[in-house]
């Protein structure tokens, strides 16, 4: 179809308030818009809930992000005290894995710092208290090494002189000396940020608990050129961390690495664009390995643009209580680590509370029923299959952190509802974010085209300009550009036309309005008229 260029000016475009001049039609969205469910803050145990409410008021950060950071901080302390038993066979850690998809500026670092004050103070106090012990340990090891060196030198001398009796004696002394090496001093250090997966595994041989808290998450999602084999190995290791299993690796020049019984809680933030890049490269592999299934994933709506300054009042009594509890639990967990660096944890069993077990079983079964084709959780079968275990872990964290076993039943009700919120959040993520690459490219093209149209006050862009100046993802090859255009056309959001023998993409007026062609501040009509 050929169109007249003179008919395509937007200089006189009607405002939405002028109903008689504009008949906007409903648009078929490229991606369905699913509203975020409010995070059920009221279900959290009092110690956690009140701290979350206080931090939200201070930072004005998204509630779901604040609550997720608080849960990860609590799990960091609780994981060193208990395992959770769903039955007599299924017994495992209470560690949590949290993944927050949020743009830079959402104040996650600030939130993390507020919820880990107790952790950082505890680490500082421990480091100060064992400073003398570390020096003593260093001296003992050096003395042992000097004795070993002397025995080796004497053995060499005896061998050169063929003194068999001396050789036999010194060999025995050297063997006896080897087993007398001073034991390693296990220095508690939990916070990890940018360690490589191998360094993390090594650190867990030094102290069997860790908290991986990062606002970048680069250590996990890696560089663009990372091979599938490396991605698979790293993700597999994080799966083992969550499971509390065994990490075994051969290291060049460093001997074999064998770590078991560790407890690791992770709280990672990654920007949506970086995560989508990773998802496109390795998302299928990650989901196939069950990596995302283990994580409590949230992509909260941003609060940026509405966080007006408010002077803080009244201090932070709830946050202080939260951090004192964190500190006390961490201090008490040291006694659960033996001289060999192994954890010895008590078991918190669902079977001790029949009512709580019934709630958990009901939740497990209700999720299972929705895994079939065309059912609610069919698209997130992987996450749904782990949601029951995450509910049990949340329950154990609620009971221990609040120190309130007498209310086990109510904590289980809350834990299952919070677990369902995270499962629904992951479903929302899969439906709106983890979308096909062709749709994402069409989105990027539409956003770019609308900006060009609005700036030039014309409702079209030429196909040549798309290839020359459009988003990198659709410029080349031509087949990719054409696929993005066809997607917009198929969704009724644009048409491809001829303008004076030039191929153009004609953007629907409704799409231009949706992308900001008109704003209230641009209108000459009164607010009442609008």
Q: How would you classify the helix and strand content by structural class? A: alpha/beta
The portion of residues assigned to helices is: 40-55%
Largest sheet: 5 strands, parallel
Report strand order across the widest sheet.
Answer: 5-6-9-4-10
**Quaternary structure:** single chain
Shape, principal axes of CA atoms: globular
Can you characterise this structure?
- It is a single chain.
- The longest helix is centred in the N-terminal third of the chain and has 30 residues, at 131-160.
- It is globular, with a radius of gyration of 30 Å.
- It is α/β, with parallel strands linked by helices and 530 residues long.
- It contains 20 helices and 14 strands.
Descriptive terms for the model:
alpha/beta, 530 residues, four-stranded mixed sheet, 20 helices
Briefly, what is this?
This protein has 530 residues and is an alpha/beta fold. It has 20 helices and 14 strands.
What layout of secondary structure does this protein have?
Layout: E1 2-3, H1 46-59, H2 63-78, E2 82-85, E3 91-92, E4 97-101, H3 108-115, H4 117-129, H5 131-160, H6 164-178, E5 191-192, H7 197-206, E6 209-214, H8 218-221, H9 228-243, E7 246-251, E8 255-260, E9 263-270, H10 272-288, H11 291-294, E10 296-298, H12 317-333, E11 346-349, H13 354-368, H14 381-402, H15 408-432, H16 437-456, E12 460-462, H17 463-469, H18 472-475, H19 478-490, E13 494-499, E14 502-507, H20 509-514
Parallel strand pairs: 1-13, 2-11, 4-9, 4-10, 5-6, 6-9
Antiparallel strand pairs: 2-3, 7-8, 12-14, 13-14
Helix pairs in contact: 1-2, 1-12, 2-3, 2-12, 2-14, 4-12, 5-6, 13-14, 13-15, 14-15, 16-19
């Amino acid at each position: 179809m050929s169109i007249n260029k003179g008919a395509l000016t937007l200089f006189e475009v009607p405002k939405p308030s002028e109903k008689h001049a504009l008949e906007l039609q409903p648009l078929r969205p490229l991606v369905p818009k699913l509203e975020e469910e409010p995070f059920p803050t009221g279900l959290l145990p009092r110690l956690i809930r009140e701290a979350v409410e206080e931090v939200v008021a201070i930072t004005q950060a998204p509630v779901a992000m604040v609550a997720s950071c608080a849960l990860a901080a609590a799990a960091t302390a609780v994981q060193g005290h208990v395992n959770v038993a769903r039955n007599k066979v299924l017994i495992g850690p209470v560690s949590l894995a949290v993944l927050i998809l949020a743009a830079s500026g959402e104040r996650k670092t600030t939130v993390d710092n507020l919820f880990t004050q107790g952790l950082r103070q505890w680490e500082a106090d421990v480091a100060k208290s064992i400073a003398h012990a570390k020096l003593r340990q260093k001296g003992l090891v050096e003395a042992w090494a000097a004795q070993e060196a002397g025995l080796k030198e004497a053995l060499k001398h005896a061998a050169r002189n063929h003194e068999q009796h001396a050789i036999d004696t010194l060999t025995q002394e050297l063997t006896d000396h080897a087993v007398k090496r001073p034991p390693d001093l296990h220095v508690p250090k939990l916070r990890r940020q940018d360690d490589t997966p191998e360094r993390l595994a090594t650190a867990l041989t030094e102290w069997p608990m860790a908290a991986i808290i990062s606002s970048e998450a680069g250590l996990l999602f890696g560089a663009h050129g990372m091979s599938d084999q490396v991605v698979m190995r790293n993700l597999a290791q994080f799966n083992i961390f969550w499971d509390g299993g065994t990490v075994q690796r051969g290291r060049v020049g460093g001997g074999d690495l064998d770590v078991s019984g560790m407890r690791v809680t992770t709280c990672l933030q990654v920007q949506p664009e970086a995560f989508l890049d990773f998802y496109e490269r390795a998302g299928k592999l990650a989901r196939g390995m069950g990596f995302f299934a283990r994580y409590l994933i949230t992509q909260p709506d941003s609060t940026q643009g509405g966080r007006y300054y408010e002077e803080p009042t009244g201090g932070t009594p709830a946050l202080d209580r939260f951090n004192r509890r964190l500190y006390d639990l961490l201090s008490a967990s040291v006694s659960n680590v033996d001289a060999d660096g192994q954890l010895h944890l008590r078991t918190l069993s669902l079977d001790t509370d029949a009512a709580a077990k019934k709630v958990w079983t009901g939740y497990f079964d209700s999720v299972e029923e929705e895994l079939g084709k065309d059912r609610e959780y069919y698209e997130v079968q992987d996450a749904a299959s782990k949601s029951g275990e995450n509910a049990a872990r949340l329950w154990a964290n609620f009971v221990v952190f609040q120190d309130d076993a007498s209310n086990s039943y109510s904590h289980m009700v809350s834990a299952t509802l919070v677990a369902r919120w995270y499962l629904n959040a992951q479903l929302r993520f899969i439906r709106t974010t983890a979308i096909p690459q062709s749709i994402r490219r069409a989105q990027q093209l539409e956003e770019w085209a609308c900006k060009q149209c609005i700036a030039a006050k014309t409702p079209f862009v030429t196909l040549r300009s798309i290839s020359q100046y459009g988003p990198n993802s659709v410029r080349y090859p031509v087949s990719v550009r054409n696929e993005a255009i066809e997607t917009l056309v198929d969704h009724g959001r644009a048409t491809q036309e001829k303008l004076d023998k030039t191929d153009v993409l004609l953007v629907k007026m409704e799409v231009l309005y949706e992308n900001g062609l008109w704003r209230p501040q641009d209108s000459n009509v009164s607010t009442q008229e609008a």
